[in-house]
Every structure is written in C-alpha cells, then in structure tokens.
C-alpha cells in the first residue's frame, strides 16, 4: 500500500502512540516531511504569516508526493486555514485538519476541543465549511498541555494532559449541553480520545478518523 504523507511542524516534543507524529498510530504506511523553521507558534495563531507558511507547505507537499505519498495531511489542525490553497497546488489530494470532520457529522451538534480557543477563529472554521457557531473549548493556556505542545517542551506529563483534556470536554458540555459529538482539533490529543469519550459519554472524533477515511478514499 502506498503511504500517506504528513507535513510535520518543526517540533521536539514527545510523540506517543496516538499522536499523528508516531507511525504506530496508523494501520497503513505513512511518511513524514518536516516543515523546517515552522513551529507551533507559526501555526497556532490568529494571524499566521500566510506567505511564509504556504511556501513551506507547498515545497514540502511536493517532496512528499515525489517520495510516493498518495495524499497529504498536516500535524496541526490550525492548518485548516490553508486547506483550499494547499489543495489547489498539491500534486496529490489534501486533508489538512480534523476540523474537516465537522461538516460530515450531519444531524449532530458538534463541539470542538482545541489547542487554543483564543487563536481558533471563524476563518479556520469557514476554511473547512464548518458552521460559524460551532462551540469551541480550549485546553488551558498555562497547563501541562501548553507547556509541552505549545511551548514545544521536551517532556510530557501524560496523566496531566489527559486530566486537562477531560476537563476541557466537561466545560464544553456545561456551556453547550446540546453537543452530542466532539471533534479534537489538535493532532496531539488522540491518545486521550477514549478517556475523553468515557468521561463525557458522547462520541469523540479526531484526526486519525479523518485520515483513516481519507486513505480509504484514495484507493
């Protein structure tokens, strides 16, 4: 089976099983291409440097396609902002972000747990055709998650991140009790998906769901 290519932010934090950056998270082959010099701060922001990020995405998408990738994704859900532009220039199909799942969950009231509620904007939602009124809850700005994944720290307190993710989900449902499906924007959150689902009692979806279906469609 030909591999799926993944454009990776330039990071040093741990990539445990379930994280998009760990090949053991997939039941099909994947290949990676690092976006040199493009880190979490360049992606998880309200106003990215679009020309600079787009140039890196384009050049590295071409490298992945040349290496045999049949489709391309990215390691950050915030790169949904580039879905249309990247798909227009990529040699192979593109699925940038778990946020693309939102419009596919028809008949559901979908909420989002994101790496940063402050930085996830209506423009990100619009880029993937998601409703502008989609409820959003962010991970804490000063917690274990932020210290590792936003500050690109070398250590991971898995138990603490799991607790923070569950609490973010509970806060989402407290504020939006009609929510009956949750999408994890962040590609570092799938390791905690089952714990979140068990705690909230609702269906939880992540980038691994997106890419499993995406890869099947590519044949």
Explain what this protein looks like in three dimensions:
This protein is α/β, with parallel strands linked by helices and 219 residues long. It has helices at 40-43, 50-66, 83-89, 122-127, 144-150, 158-175, 193-200, 207-217, and strands spanning 4-9, 30-35, 72-74, 110-114, 136-138, 181-184, 203-205. Strand 6 (181-184), helix 7 (193-200) and strand 7 form a beta-alpha-beta unit. It is globular.
In brief, what are we looking at here?
The protein contains 8 helices and 7 strands; from the N terminus they run ββααβαβαβααβαβα. It has 219 residues and is of the alpha/beta class.
Strand line-up in the sheet with most strands: 5-4-6-7
How far is the N terminus from the C terminus? 9 Å
Predict the CATH topology of the largest domain. Answer: Rossmann fold
CATH class of the largest domain: Alpha Beta
**Fraction in helix:** 25-40%
Pattern of helices and strands: EEHHEHEHEHHEHEH
Task: Report on the biggest sheet.
Answer: 4 strands, parallel
Low-confidence stretches: none
How many E strands?
Answer: 7
Instruction: Give the domain tally.
Output: 2
Taking all Cα atoms into account, the compactness measure Rg is 16 Å
Measured by DSSP, the beta-strand proportion falls in 5-15%
The number of helical elements comes to 8
Tell me, what's the shape? globular
Structural class: alpha/beta
Mean pLDDT over all positions:
97
CATH architecture of the largest domain: 3-Layer(aba) Sandwich
